[in-house]
Amino acid sequence: MANKDQQFVTSAVKAVDFPKSNLARIAFFGRSNVGKSSLINTLLNRKNLARTSSTPGKTQTINFYLPVDQSYQLVDYPGYGYAKVGKSRRQEIDQMIRTTVQDLENLRGIVQLVDGRIPTQQVDLDFEKFLNRVGVPHMIAVTKTDKVKKSDLSKLERRIETDFGQNVELVEYLLTSTVTKTGIDNLNAWIKEVIGF
């Protein structure tokens, strides 16, 4: 377990290597380069704890982090559906994601990130169906909304509700930006709610 000055716990690629902990866990999923590491850094109020890169596919391990109060863990999963690695490697990563999440003890919530700048991707819709079957509270964080024109934000919200509403009756989502800090307080509040803090 990390000490009071550490917020990175460990990395793993197999469930057997997950750190033992009684803490509630919140898992983060999304396509490569959607902004998972940036969002985790913002939630933890740290600049470079979770490594960010302009190169998609940088994160290929499951990384565990602690907030300052050490009341729960954030779990950063590799990006799913990344096309620029070899097909067999992409399948390995996607399979690792799907199998290990079933073994993630004390999982209390899932945050799925989708890029607000581009049309909804089929891989996001397919992965949301899988995440819904995991059976824990699920939030969609629409990222990089600072790069969306203000006049287009209501159109973006309607698209998210329509596209992801096909999979579930009620879509819970937040528009977020790590630049303007839009949605960060609300996401923190949702995390605290689902872990019962």
From TrEMBL:
This is Probable GTP-binding protein EngB. NCBIfam families: GTPase_YsxC. Keywords: Cell cycle, Cell division, GTP-binding, Magnesium, Metal-binding, Nucleotide-binding, Septation. Coiled coil: none annotated. GO terms for cellular component: cytosol. Necessary for normal cell division and for the maintenance of normal septation. It holds the Pfam family MMR_HSR1. The keyword GTP-binding applies. It comes from Xylocopilactobacillus apicola. The gene is engB. InterPro entries: G_ENGB_dom, GTP-bd, GTP-bd_ribosome_bio_YsxC, P-loop_NTPase.
